[in-house]
Amino acid sequence: MADDQGEQLTRAQHEQLIAELAELEGPKRKAVVEAIATARGHGDLSENFEYHAAKNEQGLLERRISILRTRLHGAKVIDEAAAAASGVVTVGATVELERDDGEKMTVEISSVGGVSPESPVGRALLGKAEGDEIDVEAPRGSWRARILSIRR
Length: 152
What we know:
By secondary structure, the protein is α+β, with helices and mostly antiparallel strands. The protein is 45% helix and 21% strand.
């Protein structure tokens, strides 16, 4: 959860972001630089689509690198053993829910490829225990659910 303490990540999520950053700063950056150099060799830059596309790609790449560096700088790796022992939903937990309409769903609380802790569902779940009822205020409407299980 991104707050005054920084974004909370599990060890695996933290390592995933580090690996992505290394890939972007290494091979991806090198490939973009080579694409720009190749496109420059095609002549007039004012009408050179390949050059402009490569420069645009470079801008997007550098922005993603900047975002990852900022996230990692402020990130806090959680104590997963303590989180599991707490018995409540934390970052890294996989939660099985049953909505009032009978639909069952499973979500992982993660800002790296799961349900963000800052999303309506994430906010409703954090700190709750098995058996608790939650109310989710989502853009597509409100709904209620009961927590069936919490696992790591």
